[in-house]
Amino acid sequence: MIFTLDPALEETAHALGYQSAIAFARIELSNRAAQKLAFYKSRVELYEQKYGMTYEEFKARVMDPSDTSLKRFGIIEKEDDDFEWEDAVYMAQSYQRKFDALSQL
Predict the structure, then answer these.
(1) Does residue 7 or residue 36 have the better pLDDT?
(2) 54: phi > 0 → left, psi -120 to 50 → alpha, else beta; which?
(3) How far is it between the farthest Cα atoms of the chain?
(4) 104 within 8 A of 96, measured Cβ to Cβ
(5) Is 7 domain-assigned?
(6) DSSP string for 53-82
């Protein structure tokens, strides 16, 4: 697909110190993906610290009634954390892929 950029976009990108509007977009998208990645990684780390294990370990242990390590946490709390933790893991992986792809450009 071939397209042309509005000359005003190129002029603005140059005025801001970028080589081109495409370079600006690549850098800014990479920065935004890095911010999102850092946010979701911090959420994953929060739950790893709270429970002292990875999400995969948590999923296995929360289903094992003989495992007493999670007894101090309530059922609703564990369910809520499970959903949020799973989402954070998925989103961190997703933004890592996006960041990696942008870094290859």
Answers:
(1) 36
(2) beta
(3) 67
(4) no
(5) no
(6) S-HHHHHHHHT-TT--TTTTS-HHHHHHHH
